[in-house]
Write a structure and sequence with these properties.
two-stranded antiparallel sheet
């Protein structure tokens, strides 16, 4: 009987990929905070995970694209930029913490599989 890593690692590997993509999107928002007309974007993590659970493929570029939306600013700026630095920094920090949590769960799963393989 073989080990099916996709099944055994549950959703944590998919979550890590989505969190990494969300990190890229949020970092882009922060980097463009002073770019006139820049539209802040974010990934709807729950929608992307639901799409993956319904048989989506994490290697397909459309998976993340369908869950990326534009952020509506609380206070619109005259230059058309919708990035609010505090909001983006808070989202980035929360995403980093969630990434670390998924990484910890994935690490625990791998250690458990390793012990099972060794017979411990």
């Amino acid at each position: 009987m073989g080990i099916n890593f996709n099944k055994d690692l549950d959703v944590h590997s998919d979550a890590l990929r989505l969190r990494a993509e969300r990190t890229r999107v949020l970092a882009s928002n922060i980097a463009n905070e002073s770019t006139p007309g820049y539209q802040a974007r974010d990934i709807d993590f729950n929608a992307a995970m639901q799409q993956l659970e319904q048989g989506g493929d994490t290697t397909s570029p459309g998976v993340e694209d369908s869950a990326i939306g534009y952020r509506v600013p609380n206070l619109p700026r005259a230059d058309g930029n919708t990035v609010e630095l505090g909001v983006e920094q808070a989202a980035f920090s929360q995403n980093a913490e969630d990434f670390q949590t998924s990484l910890t769960f994935l690490n625990m799963k791998i250690k458990g599989l390793s012990r099972a393989i060794e017979g411990n």
